[in-house]
Amino acid sequence: MTVLEPVIQFLQAWQKKTVTLAQVIAGAERPRKPVLRVMDRLVREGCLEETEDNRIPARLGEFGRDRRNPTWKIIARPLVELARPKPKRLTVRDRIWKLIRARRRCTRLEIRRLASASIASAEDYTKLLERDGYIRAIGKDGRRKVYLLIKDPGPARPVIKEKTDD
What we know:
alpha+beta, Arc Repressor Mutant, subunit A, 2 domains, three-stranded antiparallel sheet
């Protein structure tokens, strides 16, 4: 679990308009430094507004700069939007797999053009799929190999090991 999730949950449950760093640390039950980084990120994204930044002087035996002890004003609407899960973006391999499933037979050039993938990506992924038995080279179209989908595990891209331990 990341630090962001418990901090957002605490801020959504917090009833007051302002919150201090000590209150967030206690409520989220996470270390000070990661919580401070998350809070700074929330300020940059417009979810919080820093109202004051008190400094705590170093205690006897401590060295370094004074510690920050900021106070923030909570802006409610962006916090709700931030808490919603964001849809995952399709990777190049996801696009290639979707194309292979749709066409059933294709060449690397078609994969490269239609999936907006580089030549190297199309070559690497087709080699992995061929090695694991998902596709097979069935012939040539001019100088290019034509691949046929053999095993279709479904719309989700199959999990393929990159390297084998021989």
